[in-house]
Design a protein that fits this description.
With 522 residues, this protein is mainly alpha-helical. It is built from 12 helices and no strands. It is elongated and about 170 Å long.
């Protein structure tokens, strides 16, 4: 397009024969004034004669200069428009190869699935192995239900911490009178008391209660022993704390507080009054609060810390993690395959956008070429007009100094035929045709570019539809790949477990990984 901007209108000038340029018409350049002065000597000798029908040398020089200028004008215009046509041809959009793009999309999907296959086999093997372990655990322990536990342990710990805090503040209110620091001291003392109480609850529920329901006797006996030990410890601990409060309160009332000696006094108080020999209502309240929190924490640990059956959660979570890893890998493979296929289409869409900009540039070049061609025609007319004006001025000067009448054709104002130079005229006409053909070709390129853009737009539409079909087809390909992966994984596992007895799998594939749900205990 820069070439078209350089193709300025060319007008007649005599002082730049090598390169025609602009001239201020109406003003005579030195060469043209010289031609007019040359009209005087021939006029004094009545040259050309009255009966002459041929041009003398000065007039012929003016005519030749005009013919040469028009030839150069048309030649320069044709060259610049031809270069613009070549430039526009380079910008012409190219047809998008739909078949190659579709093949590339299929190849990229296949490549991703092939590259991910070995990793998927390993993950599937891990899933099948953990699934078999879970199935074996369920069959061995007589479990016919899904594992029941919270998906996150954070809620359980939040409940335990909340119980600890609430009991601490409740105990702090009841112990505030025996602490030297008042409520703050009571809170610190109560927190230590509550920590022991809550810890015993976690042990009782999380270990004892869960092992009591175990299938095998050794574990049941261990659970029973732990349960009795933890609950007995909690009972004695809360009774000890209640007696501790009575002893400490009596010491504070007597004005002899000694927090370090309260322990010995508490043991003496228990021996004198018995474990249940509490006399104060607040002491019984402290005991009731502690025992209630202990039992609540025990139930939470039994019900929410893990599945109520010992070790069931561990096997179930191991399987769930393996299954999740495999399903995530399958989803990642699917996403990567679609992304790679989409990348092919994105490249074509970017190319289509660039070609749309190129088509707009070609249209602009065609419009500009049309203007340049018209400017060249206008400049050519200006050359003729100026040449005719110079020729008439020469004849007027010649006529003024003649004694004989001037030739009759001096008065002829139609001078177009006078400028016909066969060689230069043929060259100019050829350049005119070349310029017109270049402009016509540019307009045709605009039409061709639009047709190509429309065609490419249809190609992109079909490729987008094909990609949508590939999304659906990819699910089938993933399913087929999973089938082959399952076969290979089963074969690999069969080699490693050939010596083991076959175990029926009570977990159907479609229900192998149920969401943890709150259900009845085992």
């Amino acid at each position: 397009m820069r070439l078209l901007h350089a193709a300025q209108p060319i007008a007649l000038t005599a002082d730049a024969p090598g390169r025609p340029g602009l001239v201020a018409f109406g003003k005579l350049c030195p060469g043209e004034r010289r031609d007019l002065r040359l009209a005087l000597p021939p006029g004094r000798t009545n040259t050309p004669p009255t009966v002459s029908r041929t041009l003398n040398e000065p007039q012929q020089r003016i005519i030749d200069r005009v013919a040469e200028g028009m030839a150069r004008l048309n030649r320069a215009t044709a060259e610049r428009l031809g270069e613009a046509l070549i430039d526009a041809g380079r910008r012409l959009p190219r047809t998008l190869d739909e078949a190659a793009a579709a093949a590339a999309m299929d190849a990229r999907i296949a490549s991703v699935l092939h590259d991910r296959r070995s990793g998927l086999v390993e993950l599937r093997e891990a899933e099948l192995e953990t699934r078999r372990n879970l199935s074996y655990f369920r069959r061995r322990h007589g479990l016919n239900r899904a594992a029941n536990y919270r998906a996150s342990s954070l809620l359980f710990f939040a409940v335990i911490i909340g119980s600890l805090v609430l009991e601490s503040f409740a105990n702090a209110f009841l112990l505030r009178r025996i602490a030297e620091q008042g409520l703050i001291g009571g809170v610190v003392l109560a927190a230590l008391i509550s920590a022991v109480n809550v810890a015993l609850g976690v042990i009782a529920g999380g270990v004892g209660w869960r092992l009591v329901g175990h299938k095998f006797p050794p574990q049941r006996l261990l659970g029973l022993f732990t349960l009795i030990l933890a609950h007995s410890g909690a009972l004695l601990w809360n009774l000890f704390v209640a007696h501790f409060r009575e002893v400490a309160e009596a010491a504070v009332a007597a004005g002899t507080p000694d927090l370090g000696g309260y322990t010995v006094d508490t043991l003496r108080h228990i021996r004198q009054n018995g474990w249940f020999g509490l006399s104060g209502l607040l002491s019984w309240g402290l005991f009731a609060i502690g025992l209630t929190v202990h039992l609540f924490v025990s139930r939470e640990a039994w019900d929410d810390m893990a599945d109520r059956y010992w070790d069931y959660k561990r096997y179930d979570q191991t399987y769930r993690r393996a299954r999740g890893d495999y399903e995530d890998a399958v989803a990642d493979a699917k996403g990567a395959a679609l992304d790679d296929a989409r990348a092919v289409l994105n490249d074509l869409e970017d190319q289509h956008e660039r070609q749309a900009a190129a088509r707009a540039q070609i249209a602009e070049m065609a419009e500009l070429a049309e203007r340049r061609l018209q400017e060249a025609r206008d400049a050519e007319s200006e050359w003729v007009r100026t040449g005719a004006a110079l020729l008439r001025a020469y004849r007027d000067e010649n006529r003024l100094v003649r004694t004989d009448p001037a030739p009759a054709w001096f008065a002829d104002q139609s001078v177009a035929d006078d400028f016909r130079n066969p060689a230069l005229d043929a060259e100019a006409e050829q350049s005119r045709r070349a310029s017109a053909d270049a402009v016509a070709s540019l307009h045709k390129l605009v039409s061709d570019a639009q047709k190509l853009q429309d065609f490419n737009g249809d190609v992109l539409g079909r490729l987008n539809a094909r990609l949508s079909e590939q999304v659906a087809g990819l699910l089938e390909r993933i399913d087929a790949l999973k089938a082959t992966i399952d076969t290979e994984a089963e074969r690999n596992l069969a080699g490693s477990t050939a010596a083991a007895a076959p175990i029926a799998d009570p977990i159907p594939e479609s229900h192998a990984s149920p969401e943890p749900a709150r259900g009845a205990p085992a």
